[in-house]
Amino acid sequence: MFRTAATPRTDPAAEPAAEPAAARPKGLAAVTEPISELRLPVWFFGFEAVFAGAFDLFKAFPAVLPALGVLVIVNIAVSMTLMRKRLRLAKALWRGKETRKVAIGLVALRLGSHFALNAVGVAVTSTAAHVAYAVLLGAITIGLLAFTQQAALRALEKSRANAAQTDPAAAAAEPLDAAPVA
């Protein structure tokens, strides 16, 4: 039977009390894993680089479309299994405006650069040009992802250090990772 707003609760002990919204940490504060476990492996950046250059790879080699589809499925499977601990960090990052700026910047770079090249009469049409463009966009993506990851991990380390200074009891329960963030 569904309970409506007018239906009284029959067993208040059956439902746990809701945690106050102020007590739950949000954003980077909600990420409690050690920093060394949150670092994305280098091979994962390769996935993202392929996706950044997917349009040009497809234009250069149309037969690559099924392989790109398989990579999308593998990327989702890897994200949901091997990278599970990092999903909370990713969610916290997407709430930040800097990460959204990077994503929007990559899309703007993709569309704007093709538009600008077409406007000056230097369209990317050959296979070699599409491959070079895919490699360039992949390299830019890897660089921006590495920068964003380092900035986020530094911010997380700083927020944990600040929390440790203001609340020594919480710091004792949750030690900082000993690995330096460069």
Q: What is the helix content?
A: 55-70%
Helix and strand string, N-terminal first? HHHHHHHH
Q: Name the average pLDDT.
A: 78
Largest sheet: none
Structural class: mainly alpha
Strand content: under 5%
N-to-C CA distance: 56 Å
The counted number of beta strands is 0
Query: Are there runs of 5+ residues with pLDDT below 50, and where?
Result: 175-182
How many H/I helical runs? 8
Anisotropy-based shape: elongated
Structural overview:
- It is a single chain.
- The chain has 182 residues and is an all-alpha fold.
- Helix 3 packs antiparallel against helix 7.
- Helix content is 64%, strand content 0%.
- The chain is elongated, with a radius of gyration of 22 Å.
- It has helices spanning 35-38, 42-52, 54-60, 65-80, 87-95, 97-119, 127-166, 168-173.
